[in-house]
Amino acid sequence: MGKVNCTNIYRVILLMALVCMGTAQTVRAQDITGSNSKISVQAKSSDSVPKKEQIDNSQILDAQKEIVDERIKNLESTIFGQKELIEKLEWKLDSLNKKPETGEMNFSIWSSILLGSVAVIVTVLGVGIAILSFIGYRELIQKGTESAKLIAAERTKLEFDQFIADGKLDAVIAEGINRIVYRGIASGQNDDDGDNAPNN
């Protein structure tokens, strides 16, 4: 067998219960009307009863008939109400089981479209920011390197000019020149020893 649709099973059970209730009420109504006809047959057959008792019996029978008629009307209105209720329940079940048509847009379709569009927008923004950050990072490193070179060159020139102006480099320059000039002359002395080198 295939899959059994639970809503159809519930529908059948509900309809069977309502039909059983309606049938039971109809049988009760028939029982009441049947007992009423029995009472009227007994009243007709009792012609030998005195007239006063017949009048009392006929009043009782009329009162019982009115009660039975009122019960029948109540049962008919209950059955009519149950029929309306059954129709409403069937309509609700049909509307729940009804699949949306291809052109029909419902909440789930709209929410999925909106969530998809938000995901696309966030993805595009993320990729754009990543590209810009990579380009910006590379440019930041290049500009940092260039500015470091410029600052280092300027700072070195300033320090060098300051050393020259203060005369701190005169001794170092003279010692370097002496080492180059007198390199091979003093054979017994160490090249690194600057104390024996002639000073100008």
Summarize this structure as a short list of keywords or feature phrases:
single chain, 200 residues, mainly alpha, 2 domains, 4 helices, rod-shaped
Shape: rod-shaped
Helix and strand element order:
HHHH
Radius of gyration: 58 Å
Tally of distinct domains: 2
Figure out the total of helices.
Answer: 4
Structural class: mainly alpha
DSSP strand content? under 5%
Low-pLDDT regions = none
- Overall mean pLDDT stands at 75
According to DSSP, the number of beta strands is 0
Distance between the termini: 118 Å
Helical residue percent band: over 70%
Largest sheet report: none
Could you explain how this protein is built, in words?
The chain is built from 4 helices and no strands. Helix 1 (6-45) runs antiparallel to helix 2 (51-97). It has 2 domains: 6-99; 115-166. It has helices at 6-45, 51-97, 107-166, 168-181. The longest helix has 60 residues, at 107-166. The model has no long low-confidence stretch (mean pLDDT 75). The radius of gyration is 58 Å and the shape is rod-shaped. The protein is mainly α and 200 residues long. Helices cover 80% and strands 0% of the residues.
